[in-house]
Task: structure prediction
Amino acid sequence: MSDIDDIDPIALAGTRAKGKRPYFFKDPDVDRVLSIAMVVAMEHAVTRQRLDALERLIESKGLLSRTEIDQFQPDATVETERGQWMQSYIARVLRIVQQESEALESGAAEPPLAELIEQMREP
Amino acid sequence: MSQQPPPPSWQHVGRHGIFPEGGHDDTARFDFLANMNSYLSTQLGPKVRAAYELRAKPAFEKAQGRAPQTRQEVRKAMLGDPIYQTWSALRRNAMEMRQQAGRALVFRQLGPLMAKAQALNADASGLKLDPSVAIPRHVSAVDIHCMPGGYHTEVVAEDISAGANYDSGIFATTGGMLGRYNDGGGQALAQWLKEKYPEFKPKRILDIGCTVGHNVAPLAQAFPDAEVIAIDVAAPMLRYAHARARSMGVRNLEFRQADAESTGYPDGHFDLISSAMFWHESSAKSMPKTLREVERMLAPGGLTAHLEQPQYHGMDLYEQFVRDWDAYNNNEPFWSVMHEYDLRQMMVDAGFDPERYFEAKVAGVVDRSIFPTASDEGEDYGRAALWTMFGAWK
Result:
């Protein structure tokens, strides 16, 4: 158990679930790439939603012009915050690579679920 | 192409006093996932079936000289089908992405969230934890429905993260079909009781495998004079559940860490014993023992009622196969076995009178605040709000 002040929220968010992961394609490399692509798709959608919110708010309040957004230059604090966001983003996108390594490092030999289903059948 | 209304945005999820606070991007992630699930179910799902009918089934018939006779044969016929593979890979990823989204939300605010829980749990007379309760193998063998750490793992002392993560994502996973507070199952049971047995006034109620207490809280509200007890083996769930119930003003509800196989309550102690989506996460060892314990604890004239996914008997083979997907691919190892059982016989073996056994089809109570023009369509093979209720009067 960790101390609350020592936890790493990004690492904990990506912890893999115990249980052998099923792969579906003839070549598991396809599963891996698809997994990465889907997260990119999700995060692209998140960004698109955020931009949409921002543009609509700007429009409704008449506060900014598009030129000001293009010319934005973050200060040091904002730069750090944006960097931390990038760390979290990359950990999300590359979850499957990290979880495959985590499975290897944990050393636990996990039986296929089909085996466990049979075990659970035993009274 | 028919235009489906999108599932309700996560911005409408019910925010009780211990619900994790999400920002714009958390909402957008859950909304992406709800829409992806909807696409996989309503758009790609029928194409998987078509791939079976047009490609996998004829190939099986050609090779074997007969049609598939079991859902396992349907599964074998489908494992190599590219559309099935794509659909499955996307579905598995949706589950993993949901977990990461919920855990990212929870762990970045775990300190403040635990402070809230501790304040709400300060009067802990209704929270009885017992560290000597062992986590059964069927709970710990794999992390059920790909929830890292399962229900029970404590990352920090006094942890509530598993409960908060579980609660945060149900709305997206079910497309809001369980209502803003994800309590459509409990609401359905309370409504069914009020409509069918208006004279039934249980004094003591027990809910087993309560997780975050979302389905037992409506029962406590429906029977405000009853003493309601909810048990689970997982302490992080119970801490969160207690804080959740108190923040929602539900006070006649006690949470206790206990294994439903052996609770220690006296014979005939309860008038109503319920569960929701509990048995498919049990095991062939545990389920008969637990049913006997339910029978023992139930008072004469009492009722036990359980909400579950439908049983496979008499179900179309392809639908059985699709429903079985979660057993193999979403860490639900007992799902497949449990849905084969003759539940009536299980209950009789536990000591119930076969004449007093019942099964009913129960639909989730639709939350009109998020579905003003709700339809009953769009069931998602095991995730949606159409259940079997089984049970017995004693």
